[in-house]
Amino acid sequence: GAVVSQHPSRVICKSGTSVKIECRSLDFQATTMFWYRQFPKQSLMLMATSNEGSKATYEQGVEKDKFLINHASLTLSTLTVTSAHPEDSSFYICSARRGGGGYTFGSGTRLTVV
Amino acid sequence: EDKVVQSPLSLVVHEGDTVTLNCSYEVTNFRSLLWYKQEKKAPTFLFMLTSSGIEKKSGRLSSILDKKELFSILNITATQTGDSAIYLCAPNFGNEKLTFGTGTRLTIIP
């Protein structure tokens, strides 16, 4: 049980375009989803926390207009990187939590902006 | 400000050795501490610790929490090459967020 699917696993886009990453909880309803970014040889940095039906809470230093998060249902959250630039290239991982239970991670998305 | 420090940052040992990884934290409203193993992609869950002094065990891995001294250790005995990974600790500070430590990169040499 507790599987989180993240798509796409890898994406290359041109500078200035937008990219959408999906995170789905397949066999449970996720009351809260989290989005992380991980640069090479660094730890996971939390970007934002989203609860179904409400606005995401962003961590300090994360631009909410650049990283748009939508959590329209209890099984789906999306992260859209708008007007992507090479410095946005990174590994993005989502995590979903069921009620007061554990945290399950998606398999991650490697974004390369050229 | 909440802070999580893992040590060592990097560790290289031979297969069969035993390793101890450390995680210390300075937090308010501590609820639990989680350990994850990250190989190439997403982290996989190892342990969740909430009480001091109670060892959790899974095969060759074990972990324990000291809430008074604010640290946790992860032990791996009889290491194998498949244990090579980054090990992350993440205290939960009661607001659902996990704050990840810097991680320990463990390399097991055959």
Present the secondary structure layout.
The complex is a heterodimer of chains A (114) and B (110).
Chain A: E1 4-7, E2 10-13, E3 19-25, E4 32-38, E5 45-51, E6 57-58, E7 67-73, E8 76-81, E9 90-97, E10 103-105, E11 109-113
Parallel strand pairs in A: 2-11
Antiparallel strand pairs in A: 1-3, 3-8, 4-5, 4-9, 5-6, 7-8, 9-10, 9-11
Chain B: E1 3-7, E2 10-14, E3 19-26, E4 32-38, E5 44-49, E6 56-58, E7 61-66, E8 71-76, E9 85-92, E10 104-109
Parallel strand pairs in B: 2-10
Antiparallel strand pairs in B: 1-3, 3-8, 4-5, 4-9, 6-7, 7-8, 9-10
Summarize the entry for a quick read.
Chain A has 114 residues and is mostly beta strands. Helix content of chain A is 0%, strand content 53%.
Describe the structure.
The complex is a heterodimer of chains A (114) and B (110). In chain A, the strands form two sheets. In chain A, strands 2, 4, 5, 6, 9, 10 and 11 form a seven-stranded mixed β-sheet that branches. In chain A, strands 1-3-8-7 form a four-stranded antiparallel β-sheet, with no helix packed on it. Chain A has strands spanning 4-7, 10-13, 19-25, 32-38, 45-51, 57-58, 67-73, 76-81, 90-97, 103-105, 109-113. With 114 residues, chain A is an all-beta fold. Chain A is globular and about 40 Å long. The mean pLDDT of chain A is 91. In chain A, strand 7 and strand 8 (76-81) form a beta hairpin. Chain B has 110 residues and is mainly β. In chain B, 0% of the residues lie in helices and 55% in strands. Chain B contains no helices and ten strands. Chain B is globular, with a radius of gyration of 13 Å. Chain A binds chain B through residues 6, 32, 34, 36, 41-46, 49, 93, 95, 97, 102-108, and chain B through 34, 36, 41-45, 48, 88, 96-103, 105.
